[in-house]
């Protein structure tokens, strides 16, 4: 049975993350008919189509939204179904010299464009040339594009090609790297009231859904600290009213806090806090589950405390690198509802099953945890690795202002790339005697062993564990420079200098991701409520200018407090 999902990306940093995510997924596509079938059902997030030349396409089932100026050389309709003409081909004043494109040359007026077309990133230039080279049977070695220093926007490293209806641009605002132009949540809600914008966007969503045989729901990334949060809230209301399906949201916070026009530093902080608080208050009523994402430990008033991820070295302020880390979490954590044949294994195979498991007692906010790469030594068995953890957490938190301790945790865990032959020593091996004394030796696969580990290390908790054999693919333009020198060519840790020397060439990596619900998350909500309660709305007139009344503001703050109370420890698991 089909289980399609429609994905939304709203905002610039969301598109940074999404671009990496789609790149990662396409890196795992295998066109070899003799290869082992993939465990992942790519048709859940992708759709098959045809160009006008009847060439088969496979593109993300996606609607993305950003401001004018982010697409650079790519037209709003994308470049998959309609290839733009080479400027050199049409650099003529004589219509008769135009290429044969089906027009009557005597009726064509040539108007020369004065502005230079946007410059392509070298990677995009080479992608264009590579498509020609591959058609001629030529292959080129990978180059070092120094993406971390040269990427100016997400389009620079996008490998994926999109359906014409996927790309949506807000023309009234021009993207700026210095200031967020769509500043407040109320401004985003006002944008939704624009009939033409709303009608076009929702019609594109409807077309995607009508193509599906069994759409199971929606997943959405959106920039939470600026006006895109308002667009997300209104879109969510529309999806609930029209379709009533499961909705999993990821409010994202960039590593560098957005600033706003005509606002000093304290005002910038206050605008971000109000945007976030109002968004969280409404998400608690509207969505099935939401999981805030950031590589920064604190994001409410001050954006600070970059998370330390073992065996990863990254620039905390770099959008290209930090978004790759968050995309790695998404690619791993969502495997639970993206596997082939998992519809026969129960409700856990569906988006609604994941959301239902983690949102008991109205706790609709969960936290993200990631182990990337999974820190297993190249010569170590999983049973020994888990035994030696000695109570340490497997994952690092990727949700801002979130701490998940070891009691009363409900979680969905996905592991990938942990081979079955690294589970434990076979019974006939001499080295197996010590392992056989461990209770975990009875486990017959990776899922069982992780499940057993969590049952022993977390008090009164519940864990759903999914495991797949295939590791996460690592291909250009993913930032391979993130990995510490101890990460070997196969993605496992090693002290072998020969294996370490292969780092630039390794192609995959084991990973583990968890979406967790715990009473501890109430502390972050309480901190957010405390921050927003200190702010007088009258001192930020831009909210009132877009229609936010004082009484509505106070009602949202009260709703946020009520939402926080769902995390108080006055229930039984």
Key attributes of the depicted protein:
single chain, 573 residues, alpha/beta, Rossmann fold, 2 domains, six-stranded parallel sheet, five-stranded mixed sheet, 16 helices, 15% strand, DML1/Misato_tubulin, DML1/Misato, Protein misato
Structure description:
The protein is of the alpha/beta class and 573 residues long. The chain has two domains: 5-82 and 163-357, Rossmann fold (3-Layer(aba) Sandwich); 362-520, no CATH class. The protein has helices spanning 12-27, 122-135, 147-150, 185-192, 195-211, 228-242, 265-286, 319-333, 351-358, 382-388, 432-436, 446-457, 497-500, 522-533, 541-545, 550-565; strands at 5-10, 46-50, 56-60, 62-68, 167-174, 217-223, 246-252, 289-290, 296-298, 304-306, 367-371, 396-397, 409-416, 462-468, 472-473, 508-509, 511-518. The strands form five sheets. It has a six-stranded parallel β-sheet. A five-stranded mixed β-sheet has the order 12-11-17-13-14, sandwiched between helices. It has a two-stranded antiparallel ribbon with strand order 2-3. α4 packs across α6 (228-242). The chain is globular, with a radius of gyration of 25 Å.
Low-confidence stretches: 132-139
In CATH terms, the superfamily of the largest domain is Tubulin/FtsZ, GTPase domain
Broad CATH class of the largest domain: Alpha Beta
The number of strands is: 17
Number of domains: 2
- Named at the architecture level, the CATH assignment of the largest domain is 3-Layer(aba) Sandwich
Helix content: 25-40%
**Helical element count?**
16
Assign the CATH topology of the largest domain.
Rossmann fold
Measured distance between first and last alpha carbons:
33 Å
On the 0-100 scale, what is the average pLDDT?
89
Q: Main β-sheet: number of strands, strand sense, barrel status?
A: 6 strands, parallel
Order of strands side by side in the largest beta sheet?
5-4-1-6-7-8
Rg over C-alpha atoms, rounded to the nearest angstrom: 25 Å
Beta-strand percent range: 15-25%
Derived from helix and strand composition plus strand pairing, the structural class reads alpha/beta
